[in-house]
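The pair is quoted verbatim below.
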Amino acid sequence: MKLSQLIASVNPTKIKGSTDCDIASLGFDSRRVTPGQLFFALKGEAADGHDFIPDVVAKGAVAIVCERLPASCDERVCYLEVPDSHYAMGHIAAGFYGHPSKQLTLLGVTGTNGKTTTATLLYRLFRALGHKVGLLSTVVNYIDDKMVKAERTTPDALQIQHLMSEMVKAGCAYCFMEVSSHAVVQHRIAGLEFDGALFSNITHDHLDYHKTFDDYIKAKKLFFDTLPASAFALINLDDRNGRVMVQNTKAKVKTYSLHTLADFHCRIIENTFEGMQLNIDGTEMWTCFIGQFNACNMLLVYAAARLLGVDKNEALRLLSGMEPVTGRFEVLREQHNIIGIIDYAHTPDALQNVIDTINDIRHDEQRLITVVGCGGNRDKSKRPLMARIAVGGSDKVVFTSDNPRNEDPNAILDDMYAGLSAGDAARAIRIADRREAINTAVHLSRPGDIILIAGKGHETYQEVKGTQTHFDDKEVFLCCITCLNI
C-alpha cells in the first residue's frame, strides 16, 4: 500500500521526503524493524522511539511517523511529523488493515470491574446463537474458536487492527472487547468504529498512572465522548458516575440498574453458593453465577444482547446455562466440606463486593478466611484500603504477596498494614510466600469454612523481579486441601 494512501486520515503537520513509497509493514519496536516498514516513533514511560530513528532507518524502514523531525534526515526516507504518534498509529493501522472494525459489529466494555466477565459472556452468547465472533479480553483473545494469548487488557493499536482483520477473514460478524482507561488515553483504540460502549462501574484503581480519581474518570469518559451518533452507550445507573460518562456523547443512551428505574432492570430473588434466582425485565431465570456484582454483569450482558436485536427469551435461556469465567468468583467445593473461592479482586471495591457477597450468603457457623495481597509497581494508595476491607469483613486474614514485580514483598505488606489499627493488625497473619499463605489458610480452616483467595484469579504465574514463574491459586488450594488431615 502506498504511504500517500495511508496518511490521508492523520494530516501530518510536516512531510519531509516522498510519500510515493510502498509500505510493507507497520511497527514501533526498533528491534523488529524489517525492510519496507513504516515505523512509529512513540514516547513511552521507559523509552522514546525518537531516539532509535537512525537505527530503524539503517535496518530498512522507508517511512517514519514522529512528533519531532530528527536533526538529520535520510533523503531516501519519508518523515511525517504529527501531533501524536500513538493517535496516528491507530488511524494508519486501520487503513493498512482495511478498516476491519467497519466490517464488524464492535462493542467495547469499560469500567473498573466486570469487563472480562461481560465481554466473555457476550462472546459465548453470540457464538451460542450461531454467529462467528471475536473476543479481546484480559484472559484470552479469540478469533471465532481460535485462541490467541492475551498479554494485557487492551492490545496496542497495531495488534488490535491485525486481530480484527483476522476476525473479518474468519467470517466473524461481531467483536466484543475490553477497553481499559490506559487504552483510551494512549490512543490504542484510535481508528476503531464502535457500534456500542458498555459501562460497568468506576472505583479506586490505576491512580499510579492517572494520578487522580478525576483523571481516571475523564479517561473512561473520553471513550464515550468519541462515540458516533449511530452507536449506543449503555450505562449503569447504580454507579453515580454512569451519567457522567455520557454527558457529552453523541451516542444513543440506554440504562440498566438493580436498584432504580432503568431501560433494563434486574432483581435478585435468591442468592446462594449454588447460584442466583433473578428477575430480569419481569422474567425469572436461574444462574450459577453468585453475588450482586454478577447479577449486574448478567444484566449488562442481557441488555447489550437485546440492543443488538437478540430475542428476550432466547437471551435469558442461553445466559441461564452459562458458567462463570475462570478466576471470577470461582467456587471450589472439595473434601472436608471446605469451600474455596478464587477471585481476581485486586481493587478495594472488587474485594468489598466479593466479601460482602460471601457474608450475605454464609451461615453463622461458617467462618471466612481471606488470603489477599497487592501488586507491586502499581497504585500504592489502595493497599491500606484493601487491608482494612479484608480485616473488616473476615474472621481471619492472611496477608501475602500478589505479583511483587520489582518491589520488595515485605514493603508492600508494610503499606497494607499501615491501614490497620493495632487491634486489627493483631487479627491478621503476615506470610510473604503466597503458597505458604494459602497452605496456612487451609490449615486454619475447619469443616464448613470458606477460604477466599483474592487478587490473581485466572493468572497462572507470579511475577518477581522481572521473572514469571508458574503459580495458580486454584491449583495450590486444591493441592493443600488434598494434603489436609482433619
Q: What stands out?
A: The chain has three domains: 3-93, 100-320, 330-482.
